[in-house]
Specification:
Elements: E1 3-9, H1 14-18, E2 22-26, H2 29-41, E3 45-51, H3 52-57, H4 60-68, E4 73-77, H5 89-101
Length: 108
């Protein structure tokens, strides 16, 4: 059976590990390239998710190998490093309560 793994910056892989993916942390694009090459040679690798900034910075030889590979499938993913609120916090809390309870409760 094939595995799903993710190559991500330090501290960014908690959600992937909770979903069952094997997370390997890299501190730089060079380190990510080394990990990617090792993972691509592993017979158990089915899907390898890579932070897209790392994937853009890997050597051309490895990029070509990743592009042509079908098993494992190498997929670049965006890693969101900062979340920003687009609504007032009170509105967000009211929306969550409304979805959970089924009624709108005004917070003042």
């Amino acid at each position: 059976m094939y595995s799903v793994s993710a190559i991500l910056p330090h501290g960014e892989g908690i959600g992937f590990s909770l979903a069952g993916a094997r997370v390997m942390e890299a501190g730089s694009a060079a380190e990510a390239a080394e990990i990617l090459e090792t993972e691509m040679d592993d017979d158990k690798s089915g899907v390898i998710l890579v932070d897209e900034t790392y994937l853009e910075a890997i050597p051309e030889r490895l990029k070509k190998k990743a592009d042509e590979s079908t098993v494992p499938l190498v997929v670049g993913i965006p890693v969101i490093r900062k979340w920003e609120y687009t609504h007032d916090r009170t509105e967000v809390i009211e929306h969550i309560i409304r979805r959970a309870v089924g009624y709108r409760i005004k917070i003042s």
